[in-house]
Structure formats: structure tokens, C-alpha cells
Design goal:
The protein is mostly beta strands. Helix content is about 0%, strand content about 50%. It contains no helices and 15 strands. The strands form 2 sheets. Strands 1, 2, 3, 4, 5, 6, 7, 8, 9, 12, 13, 14 and 15 form a 13-stranded antiparallel sheet that branches. The protein has a two-stranded antiparallel ribbon with strand order 10-11. Strand 3 and strand 4 form a beta hairpin. It is globular and about 50 Å long. The N terminus is likely disordered.
């Protein structure tokens, strides 16, 4: 792996975001037509905890491939959309995992986020949440070679969840640290990580596969 210039210092700890109004809500992985769907008000900011256990890092290493358990937080703002949908703008995103070969692996918003906004769309049975997210990935090291090594998503990551209400209910954790509660957002395609040259040439480095993310609302103040 070739070292890239560091654009920012690696985060050592994930700091949970502050803010957002705690709303009661029940989220499910399947639609529940008996409960009316609802959107949060336009302009509201919402804080969410994020938990992605068991993501596979597809990289040029012999099997078994590394697995990463990401924990973090996100803050989104509700923006106007249309008659049956609203948009979500990501204001803050930090997720981190640790692996013996790579040290701390941190995902965060890029300096310039030009990716598509996320969408909440209401239908007869509930809400479909399409979470679109561009990210920057920082690897603390690669084996014995110190970094940091900085990559970006070559295409925005895409997740989908089916909900009856948004935001999803708060998360809790199982004894092993895995999430319970919240709502599961399922990854639609592997997340390609790499570099982009000034001319726009994309050079892939690795993929994050199977990175389903559980989201849960955090209490706080809007």
C-alpha cells in the first residue's frame, strides 16, 4: 500500500453527536400498514447512533478477510422535498472500528460532500428510507507501515430501510456489544474505497461488504 498525504488527524475516539429532539416511534424491518407513517418536521435536526457489526473488508490479503465492527453517530437535518417525501442532509458522521492490521479505521464526512441527499418517501404501508452517503476512510496503519492512509468512497454508499416512523427508536446493546432496537439499514452494494486523481481517475483499494447499519435515535436538543 502506498502512503497518501494525511489530510486530517485520525480520530482516536468516536464522539456521540449532541442535539435532536427525542420522538417516540416504532420502526420495523417490514411495513406495518395498521400504523400511519409520519415525517419529522422540516428544519429539525436529529441525532442518531450507528452500529455496523461484521462488515467485511475486501482487500488484497489472504483469507480469511478482515471483519470490522463500526460504532459511531450521525446528525441529519430534515429538508423540504415533495408531497410524499422529504430529504435528509447529513451534517455530521463519524464511525470507527479497530483491527490488529489496520489500527483504527475511521469513516467520516468528506471535506466537500457533493453526493446525493438521502430521501424519506411515504407510501401506503410506511416509509422507505434511502440513505445515500459519501465518506472518507482513514486507516491508521497497514501492518507494520504507519499511516495514516486516506481513501474515499468512489461512489456514494447506499442503504435502504422500511419504517413506520422516522426517526427510528433508540438503540440498546446486547452483552457482546451488538445492537438491539433501532432500525436496520441494508447496504445495497459493496462500498468501494480508493483514490481519485485531479483528472478524475478512480483507483480502487478495498471494498466494505455486508455493512448493514443499525440506526437509533439519540436523546438531545434540536
Amino acid at each position: 500500500m502506498t502512503s497518501l498525504p494525511s489530510r486530517r488527524r485520525l480520530l482516536g475516539q468516536v464522539v456521540a453527536a449532541a442535539g435532536g429532539t427525542l420522538l417516540a416511534g416504532q420502526a420495523g424491518r417490514a411495513f406495518a400498514a395498521s400504523q400511519p407513517a409520519s415525517f419529522p418536521p422540516i428544519g429539525q435536526t436529529i441525532n442518531l447512533s450507528l452500529n455496523a457489526f461484521g462488515a467485511t473488508l475486501a482487500v488484497n490479503l489472504p483469507p480469511p478477510l478482515p471483519t470490522l465492527n463500526f460504532i459511531g453517530s450521525m446528525r441529519v437535518k430534515v429538508l423540504a422535498g415533495g408531497a410524499d417525501f422529504v430529504r435528509l442532509q447529513t451534517l455530521h458522521l463519524t464511525m470507527a472500528a479497530h483491527h490488529p492490521l489496520f489500527g483504527t479505521v475511521t469513516l467520516r464526512l468528506p471535506d466537500l460532500d457533493v453526493g446525493p441527499l438521502s430521501i424519506l418517501k411515504i407510501g401506503p404501508g410506511g416509509i422507505t428510507a434511502n440513505w445515500n452517503q459519501s465518506m472518507e476512510a482513514t486507516f491508521e496503519r497497514s501492518g507494520d507501515t504507519e499511516g495514516p492512509f486516506v481513501y474515499e468512497t468512489l461512489d456514494p454508499a447506499k442503504w435502504v430501510a422500511h419504517l413506520t416512523h422516522y426517526p427510528p427508536p433508540p438503540q440498546q446493546t446486547n452483552p457482546n456489544g451488538s445492537p438491539t432496537g433501532g432500525a436496520l439499514f441494508q447496504l445495497q452494494a459493496p462500498i468501494r474505497l480508493g483514490t481519485v486523481s485531479p483528472t478524475g481517475k478512480k483507483t480502487p483499494y478495498a471494498q466494505l461488504q455486508g455493512m448493514n447499519v443499525n440506526q437509533g435515535q439519540l436523546p438531545g436538543t434540536a
